[in-house]
Amino acid sequence: MTDVPDKISVLKFGGSSLKDPGSIERVVSIVAGRLGEGYKVVAVVSAQGKITESLLKDADIYAPSGNPREVDMLLTTGERASAALVAMALTSKGFPAISLTGSQAGIITDDNHTNARIIEVRPARVEDALREGKTVIVGGFQGVSFKKEVTTLGRGGSDTTAVALAAALNAEVCEIFSNVDGVYSADPNVVKDAYKIDEMSYQEMQELSEAGARVLHSRAVEFAKEKGIEIHCKSTLEPDSPGTVIKGFETREKIRKAGVAYEKNVTLIHTYEPDLTGLSTINNVLKFCRKKNVSVKQISFHKGYKESMVGSFILSKNDNYSCDPFLVELREKFQTAVEIINDLSAVSIVGEGITDKPDTLLDAIELLKSNEIKVSGFHTSSFRISLLLSTEKLEKSINLLHKYIVG
Q1: Cβ atoms within 10 Å of 171's Cβ, excluding its own
Q2: Residue range 145-174, pLDDT digits in tens
Q3: Beta 150-152 vs 296-303: how paired, if at all?
Q4: Is the pTM of this model over 0.85?
Q5: 326-365 b/e with 16+ CB inside 10 Å = b?
Q6: What is the DSSP string of 164-182?
Q7: DSSP-derived secondary structure letter, 190
Q8: What CATH code would you report for 8-247?
Q9: How far apart are CA 23 and CA 50, in angstroms?
Q10: In terms of CATH, what superfamily is 259-406?
């Protein structure tokens, strides 16, 4: 038995890359190609096609208000099936392979069901299999907590599994394969003039991901940035194309507007404080969100209209399961102390230096206003400007901002 070799490649394949036997054959070909280049390969796989969505519909029949532990037990079956099928396909072609669950691969998480974070990777079993000359296929999106509970890493969590394993194994490269050939300046299904970006900084990619771009999960980028791992986003159909490289850069001097991303169907929630000196309502609402395992973002608290104290935050339906039942419970529990605003979407402009001056924000608001699109609110960070607006105006807004702001 030899030592684990230095040349390790970690590949990740999304659900669209595994949807049918023909797709799995392409995955086998890509893995075989990396093996032929002298790499030992660890492949992380998502559930096939729309399996996860189908399983969630099944869960809604029996637990419409959510049951996070059992949802995790159910959802992880999709990735386990993919891993076993890919391992079988590789072995049948003469490439010895073994499938492992996230827990078997050593992915240790906290105990936050449906949205866990990786806290440690213990890849001993992966290393043993590599020493034995096997290709390792790992079910992504899942791990195990210190309480020995099966957990999932949230939507897109297979990306995070891949980057975490790449770091733990000191892999030379981490390649993320999907049905697109890289990261685009906007969703090419919405903006016909969107163009592929050859290189992006970790921060730009993380902001795009958090704003709704689905090529790469934001936690994976966060992990890669911390560990200094270079990520290559590629298409399964064009595995030898350069795709988009995500890596660290020295600070750019020029302002760069990298792209536009969007998140459809978000909910804006306002809380109102009866006591102007306290934070009782928003504190209790956030505790209720935590109890129900609901993640929120863009939390703020300020003095509002007529001297009232107002708290606000965004709830994303993409980031949470069973959102609608939760909102019903929230309204019943807090009644007039909360205001729930639905039918909104968020569109974001991302790039380095775009909030150093208010020019880009003002130009974006004026552009939308001149096209009769009302902005219901906005939020900025160092790399992002996010605008809340009506969902029915979303596609028009994306195209306008891409054409006149990003260019």
Answers
A1: 23
A2: 999 999 999 888 999 999 999 999 999 889
A3: unpaired
A4: yes
A5: bbeebeeebeebbeeeeebbbbbbbbbbbbeeeebbeebb
A6: HHHHHTT-SEEEEEESSSS
A7: T
A8: 3.40.1160.10
A9: 14
A10: VC0802-like (3.30.2130.10)
